[in-house]
Design brief:
The complex is a heterodimer of chains A (about 120) and B (about 110). Chain A is mainly beta. Helices cover about 0% and strands about 55% of the residues of chain A. In chain A, strands 2, 5, 6, 10, 11 and 12 form a 6-stranded mixed sheet that branches. A 4-stranded antiparallel sheet of chain A has the order 3-9-8-7, with no helix packed on it. Chain A has a two-stranded antiparallel ribbon with strand order 1-4. The mean pLDDT of chain A is about 95. With about 110 residues, chain B is mainly beta. Chain B is built from no helices and 11 strands.
């Protein structure tokens, strides 16, 4: 069965520090998709990135970067030079190809950036 | 462009009362539709998903049910609400089995 674990419940850092949010997943499929979402205080969920299981290249988008490692079943998210606007709850999610359209989320990490 | 709407945005209901949350998607055909619940300070729990009209997969065998009477309409219901049903309910859609989810604005339910 598919499972996503975000062990860090809450993280608090000072602005401009780098921070890494961990995501560990479990799946028996060889084809699957991983996602990261951001939920700011307003509540809406904002899509950040999608990665398929055959693409292990790391991704960088501005201050955001993602490290996908199949060997450790991890898909970690790093924010460089954090800003107060990065304060939000961040969710990692997994979709298995064999589970049709089911997508499950981790429990989320609440990130607080202090000025 | 595609849009998703869900309503009502806020709801306060007494224990034992019925519930109906509605979600509609515009600008796409045959979307996969989802209902998630987020309890206060908690993660996103998948409740139901649907890959077509009348096709509902349930992840939570409690007092909630879902229906998809039309291609782009997804309804979450309960006959009798429990206190534990309080939370933030999110509808979402995507096309196919590989893309990202697009979420609605959410419906905040408080059961008293």
């Amino acid at each position: 069965a598919q499972k996503v674990t975000q062990a860090q419940t809450e993280i608090s850092v000072v602005e401009k520090e780098d921070v890494t949010l961990d995501c560990v997943y479990e799946t028996r499929d060889t084809t699957y998709y991983l996602f990261w979402y951001k939920q700011p205080p307003s509540g809406e969920l904002v899509f950040l990135i999608r990665r398929n299981s055959f693409d292990e290249q790391n991704e960088i988008s501005g201050r955001y970067s993602w490290n996908f490692q199949k060997s450790t079943s991890s898909f970690n998210f790093t924010i460089t030079a954090s800003q107060v606007v990065d304060s939000a709850v961040y969710f990692c999610a997994l979709s298995e190809y064999s589970s049709a359209s089911k997508i499950i989320f981790g429990s989320g990490t609440r990130l607080s950036i202090r000025p | 462009s595609q849009t998703i709407h869900q309503w009502p945005a806020t709801l306060v209901q007494p224990v034992g009362s019925p519930l109906s949350l509605e979600c509609t998607v515009e600008g796409t055909s045959n979307p996969n539709l989802y209902w998630y619940r987020q309890a206060a300070g908690r993660g996103l729990q998948l409740l139901f998903y649907s890959v077509g009209i009348g096709q509902i997969s349930s992840e939570v065998p409690q007092n909630l049910s879902a229906s998809r009477p039309q291609d782009r309409q997804f309804i979450l219901s309960s006959k009798k609400l429990l206190l534990s049903d309080s939370g933030f309910y999110l509808c979402a859609w995507r096309t196919g089995y590989t893309g990202e989810l697009f979420f609605g604005e959410g419906s905040r339910l408080t059961v008293l």
